[in-house]
Amino acid sequence: QAVVTQEPSLTVSPGGTVTLTCGSSTGPVTSGHWPYWLQQKPGQAPRTLIYDTYNRHSWTPARFSGSLLGGKAALTLSGAQPEDEADYYCLLSYSSGARPWFFGGGTKLTVL
Amino acid sequence: QVQLVQSGSELKKPGASVKVSCKASGYTFTSYGMHWVRQAPGQGLEWMGWINSDTWNPTYAQGFTGRFVFSLDTSVSTAYLQINSLKAEDTAVYYCARDKAGYWGQGTLVTVSS
User: Fold this and answer.
1) Cα–Cα distance measured from residue A26 to residue B55, given in angstroms and rounded to the nearest whole number
2) What is the rounded CA–CA span in Å between residue B40 and residue B93?
3) CB of A109 closer than 8 Å to CB of A85
4) Looking at chain A, which residue has its C-alpha nearest residue B59?
5) Distance, in angstroms, between B85 CA and closest chain A CA?
6) Looking at beta carbons, which residues of chain B come within 8 Å of A98?
7) How far apart are CA A98 and CA B14, in angstroms?
8) b vs e for A8-31, b when ≥16 Cβ sit within 10 Å of the residue's Cβ?
9) Contact assignment for A46 to B45 by CB distance below 8 Å
10) B41 pLDDT above the threshold of 80
11) pLDDT band at A2, cuts 50/70/90?
12) Is B46 in Cβ contact with A51 (below 8 Å)?
């Protein structure tokens, strides 16, 4: 059973840049894990910002970007806005057949 | 555009059953599977499993076997999650989420209380 790790909390200044990372207990995260990044604000459903490593949805602000960095998936926020304060979850998939999803514990991002 | 619309909140007594629906639109329903995710109060996201919308084959995550049932009605493009023998610890928000590209429903709060 894979364990997906994320920073529990991060703080970024308005207008600043921050990188959230997502690691796996089974080894390096690759594009074959189809990494997702989800944003969840209090009382709201999660919404997918990034899927399959770096693909944005139409609603994803351009200031969010996904990548692979040093064996982990990464979400970089460049030019943080107050409305970006939220919980961010990483999601990895480990098999093309059984398609299990594994969530990280989430990163609480504070914009301050 | 892709939309997943879930049924409304439910209040159930311990031992009862509940069936949550997730109606899909904006894509060919049988082309993508549907995942179910639980979020207990104040907690993170927990994958419950998924159902292949083409083969109707369900896969249940550890801890979600026995009382949890995924099903489909392709005639109305709807996926269902049924939970039997409800317990207080089943109190949570349940989400459906489409396989590939991660479209999410708005969530259904299930409260189990006597």
Assistant:
1) 30
2) 6
3) yes
4) A98
5) 25
6) 59
7) 32
8) eebebeeeeebbbbbbbeeeebee
9) yes
10) yes
11) confident
12) no
Q: Are A68 and A76 in contact (CB under 8 A)?
A: no
Which residue bears the tokens 């894509």? Answer: B27
End-to-end C-alpha distance for chain B, whole angstroms = 40
The amino acid present at A70, given as its one-letter code, is G
Q: Locate the chain B residue with the closest alpha carbon to A55.
A: B101
pLDDT at A98: 63
From A36's Cα to the closest Cα of chain B, the distance in A is 8
The chain B residue lying nearest A107, using CA atoms, is B44
- The span from the CA of B68 to the CA of B86, in Å, is 10
**How sure is the predictor about A1, in pLDDT bands with cuts at 50, 70 and 90?**
confident
Q: pLDDT for A55-94, tens place per residue?
A: 999 999 999 999 999 999 999 999 999 999 999 999 998 7
CB spacing of A101 vs B95 below 8 angstroms: no
Is the predicted pLDDT of residue B51 greater than 90, yes or no? yes
β-partners of residue B4 are B24
